[in-house]
Amino acid sequence: MKAIKLAFPIVLLIISGIFLIASFNVPKANLGNPNGPLYFPIGLSALMLIFCIGYFFQELKNLQKEDDYIRLLIAGRTPKLIIVTVLLGIGYAFIFEQTGFLIATILFLGALLFFINGVKKWKANIIVSLCFSFITWYAFSQLLGVSLP
Amino acid sequence: MDINSFINGFMTSLEPINIMWVIIGGILGTVVGMLPGLGPATAVAVLIPVTFGMEPVSAIILMAAIYYGAMYGGSRSSILLNTPGDGSAIAATFDGYPMARKGQAGQALAISAVASFIGGIMAVIGFIFLAMPLADFALKFGPAEYFLLMLLTLSAIVSLSLGRMVKGFIAMLLGLLLSTVGIDTQTGVYRFTMGVPHLSDGIDFLIVIIGVYAIGEVLYNFLTIDHEKKEKKEVGKIWFTKEQWKRSKWPILRSGPLGFIIGVLPGAGGSIASMISYSTEKQISKKPEEFGEGAVEGLAAPESANNAASVGAMIPLLTMGIPGSGTTAVMLGALIMLGLRPGPLLFENQPEIAWTLINSMFLGNIALVIVNILLVGLLIKILDTPAKVLYPIIVLLAFIGTYTLSYNVIDFFLLLIFGVFGLFMKVFDFPIAPLVLALIVGADMEQNFRKALLSSNGSLDIFVSTPVSIGLVILTLISLFYPLVIKAFKKKKSNNLDQSSTP
Questions:
Q1: Whole-model pTM?
Q2: Both A6 and A58 in a single domain?
Q3: What is this model's ipTM?
């Protein structure tokens, strides 16, 4: 729990640090004020770093306090649900243009439903993934004129 | 008010296609808004792809209808399940759910729909009279004033993140930093693109919006997905008694204008409007002890206020191009993508769009009160849809929406990154609106800041050179320091109380 409580402030500290370093590496402009493109990012990332340091110490002070949402985040099958959804999303990105919208969507939605809704409800999962994939394909590509692979 | 434009807008809004979009948008918004955990911002974000390929005027009508439809819908789950769709529907749980527990669910649903309708209509009338003067006023703004107005909006939305100001600032600064990614439009310099050509146009804010609001929201709901489902209260007859109307009418009429004014203010929105109207009504009530136990006026007042606020929030968006809330920021993103640039010039160059939208709000509120009373029995069946089926569908819609933005699957990865980031923001109690708002106005804010400095040869005096800019600076300072002063005052008061109670 404590490690997770500090993880997000640390990630934010790293993001602001990276932005600050990268801001100093932004090339100077050939037009107008050469430092024009630098001022805003440097100012913002420096301010963000200051606030992130403040936030980090705030969290450090409250480290012993129980947090219901963080407890729920790591409890039961929640972490698995989040990770699998993200992994399936990555898989969807890889097969989307290879197999075409309809097949990729049936597979993606089907896999998500089987994982989230459970294998026991396989009939509902199959019907929803087939029907919904077809409806979205029809709505977007035929009715709204969106070009889908 | 320009009568000709008003009449033209009225006629356009009466076109069958536009009426159809009002009704479809209203129903879609109601449906998504009533799903527990999903609010108007998510409703608009998920349904953005539906507007692709549409005429801009129809698209804006549809999105506005989704927005206030979601406001109507949000209270359905508050009343029946004690689970608000979003912050603005929280106040509806205070007395709405106790009413449902007492077997008055039908009366609660009816009074909330009628209160929302009256609040909405009052706000549309206010909109008609306030929009043009504000747009004319905004036409006088130069880059310095625009920069300061955006700064005021951002500082207000951060300081209204009650008790979470540091987190609000971090979210806002991150949003502003993300808006600097890509080619700097003034000098052509590449910033933070890391050599990835896809990033040279910057990070598409719609991907961030869909990521944090749709994917982030679904991932967040995974935290409680296996919890026992709350029992839905029986609805019964959907109408209220004469006595209930007598008790509600004045609170509704008082809360409408109050909600409208709060909605117009930058940063404040439906949540604050409904809370203030609830506490005001409780304070002036002859029977304050009944509040929280199923007092009908405790439901009617916040419902009227939050719907009025949703209409009011459209004023800064349309007249100045500055969104004042998370949902209107999402709408601005979608409108820019459709080639529409809301702002004072919208009323000059494309008055038909502005006035058609305003008139469509009248029709939309009429359609929604009918839908929410006549079809409520059918609509609330959606609350029976298992979340485990619903969430995968929302995830899929988010992916399709993202693909239609650039037809590039690389954006799927950005969507997932921002989805996970949105989840952590919610888990760690970060406000999301400052991130989204800052990301959308960030580029304009920087350009206006630099243009102002260019015109003053680098002197910062330009930001205090006119009465308007001085006023904006003062308001920004007040919005930033007011919460700190109040906090210090409360602390001092409690210290004094402690000292006086010590023997």
A1: 0.85
A2: yes
A3: 0.94
